[in-house]
């Protein structure tokens, strides 16, 4: 299969991409570091220029105001009038009311536009005192802003660089070639950021220029004694188009990018030349693989590059020798496996026939067993029903004879009749248990779930069984938890369960007591029956609820029974979605518990 891109092209692409990645990272880092360095260097240059210009402005302001103060000691104002006439920096001169004097001292007002000379002036208010140092008048001298800051107008930096003057609020006081003043030097947010910057320089949007071109700007405050005394702040700003500021740096980056592109162009043929060192041995290996695929297992490669590729070629030759040996071994193993497979197929066929015959026999036996179980069930049901009638007749006959209705009988005869009557009762109970068990197993028992009080049912059974316990010399104690919630259950079935458990407790307890109790156990109502009888071995507890099992040990078959009573109880409790269990230690009595869930809906249920 021929691939769309050969390994030579891939090697060249990898070399070019690696070079490009390294160059890109280098240029990016160089640009970021260079821009930061250039930004700081140009900021320092502009700030130093602003400091020099602000020093000149401060000097001119101090000299001009100093002249005015020197002439203010003449109450006749002759000196001030002469100064106003000869000093070209003074645009206006007027006498103001005395009340304009600020605390009797010099006051420099905000720049204003005077229509008389039609120019911007800076008002300076100077108090005039008489020989007693009393302020007699206030002179307002308007300094011509255009001439006062003439040195700023002469400043030029490259093509777009210039110097401007603004007050403390950032409003223009001087802008070369611009008549409209008292406008922001830049956006308010940029101005605040500029004032809080560490280097006192940055890039802003120059609103004073009338466009949105980014401007690189630095400032320095004017240091003047008179301005400081009057809490007046002026700042000299040196601004320049940011494109012009960083033009040398951008040209340098452009040359670097061109150099990178040139290197990439050179790397393409160099990559092709060096890729042959890798490609030629790989092509030789590829041809060797083709020969081997055609069945020439003796083919080998001869690579002499003195590096890992040569080691790979040697390993390839060694691998082919081992593969050839393995192939011969596999051919022998395949022949043996085919012979073994044929033998296994024959044995599998034989075993399959045997298993099919065995399965058919098992199916036949299963059908016979099912028929036998049905016959057994029908026989038990029929026999039980057929035995009920004669047992009833026998029981009635015994009663008639015992009562002497057919003639007098001796005491000995009455005792034998009582024994017979008890055995008839036991046989009747045995038959009833078998029939109940059969109905439960076949699901023919219907459970009528009605909302009732479990305590009343337990108390009813305990009252009925109390006489039997007392006849045997036992006490029957009842402890019912109060305020148990009403729940849905089949009253007759639960009474049957309770009767069986209490009668068992009386039957297997020779002395002591029987206790019956109810408890609320989370979402269940738990009923417990305890006795002080011989108890049950721990290993035998698991056999309690199995059919036709009478436990040995503590009981030792001294009491007759069908071995179905507890099994029937288990079926009935579980059909209430409950569970039943026993706890006992041999010689310490036994406690039977059954728990019924608290059901909130009524209805009937097939067992």
Strand content: 15-25%
Q: Name the shape in a single word.
A: elongated
| Measured distance between first and last alpha carbons | 74 Å
Poorly predicted sequence stretches spanning 5 or more consecutive residues: 552-557
Question: Which class best fits the helix and strand makeup?
Answer: alpha+beta
The main β sheet shows up as: 5 strands, antiparallel
The whole-angstrom Rg is: 61 Å
Q: How many domains make up the coordinates?
A: 2
Mean pLDDT metric? 79
Beta strand count = 18
Number of helices: 13
Helix content: 40-55%
Task: Write a brief caption for the model.
The chain is an alpha+beta fold. Helix content is 53%, strand content 19%.
Would you give an account of this structure?
This protein is α+β, with helices and mostly antiparallel strands. The protein folds into 2 domains: 1-299, no CATH class; 445-606, Heat Shock Protein 90. It has 13 helices and 18 strands. β4 (119-129) and β5 (135-144) form a beta hairpin. The model is unreliable at 552-557 (pLDDT under 50).
Key structural traits:
single chain; 607 residues; alpha+beta; Heat Shock Protein 90; 2 domains; five-stranded antiparallel β-sheet; 53% helix; elongated
Question: What layout of secondary structure does this protein have?
Answer:
Blueprint: H1 7-71, H2 78-86, E1 90-96, E2 107-108, E3 112-114, E4 119-129, E5 135-144, H3 145-148, H4 150-153, E6 162-167, E7 172-174, H5 188-196, E8 201-205, E9 214-221, H6 225-229, E10 234-241, H7 242-245, H8 247-293, H9 308-402, H10 411-442, E11 446-452, H11 454-471, E12 475-480, E13 487-489, H12 491-507, E14 513-521, E15 524-531, H13 565-574, E16 579-584, E17 590-597, E18 603-606
Parallel strand pairs: 12-14
Antiparallel strand pairs: 1-5, 2-4, 3-4, 4-5, 6-7, 6-10, 8-9, 9-10, 11-13, 11-18, 14-15, 15-17, 16-17
Helix pairs in contact: 1-8, 8-9, 9-10, 10-13, 11-12, 12-13
